Amino acid sequence: MAVMGAARTYCSFCGKSDLEADVMIVGPVLAFICDECVVLAVEIIAAKRAERKLKRDVVRCAACVPQPIQFVASA
C-alpha cells in the first residue's frame, strides 16, 4: 500500500492502482506489477512449460515409432 500523499503507482499490466492491489512490485525503469498479475504470470509460465514438455515428449515418442520399412524388413 502507498503512503498518504505519495504519488499513485499503477500496474503496468492491468492498470490497477496501488490502492486496489494488495502488493505492488516495482521493476526496472519504473515498471510496476500487482500481486494478481504476478499470480497470472506464474500460471502462464507454468502452462507454457507444460506445453513445451509435452511437445518434447511427443518428439521423443515419434522417434521411437518404427518406420514402415522396419516392419517390412522384419517380416
Q: Specify Rg, calculated over alpha carbons.
A: 24 Å
Largest sheet: 2 strands, antiparallel
Helix percent reads 40-55%
Secondary-structure element order, N to C: EEHH
* Overall mean pLDDT: 85
Which spans of ≥5 residues are poorly predicted at pLDDT below 50? none
N-end to C-end Cα span: 73 Å
* Structural class estimated from helices and strands: mainly alpha
Number of strands: 2
- CA-based shape: rod-shaped
Strand content of the residues, in percent? Answer: 5-15%
DSSP helical segment count: 2
Question: Care to describe what's here?
Answer:
- This protein has 75 residues and is mainly alpha-helical.
- The chain has a domain at 24-74.
- Helix content is 49%, strand content 8%.
- A two-stranded antiparallel ribbon has the order 1-2.
- The mean pLDDT is 85.
List its traits:
two-stranded antiparallel sheet; 2 strands; 75 residues; mainly alpha; rod-shaped
What is the structure about, briefly put?
The protein is mainly α and about 80 residues long. The chain is about 50% helix and about 10% strand.
Topology of helices and strands:
Blueprint: E1 24-26, E2 32-34, H1 35-64, H2 68-74
Antiparallel strand pairs: 1-2
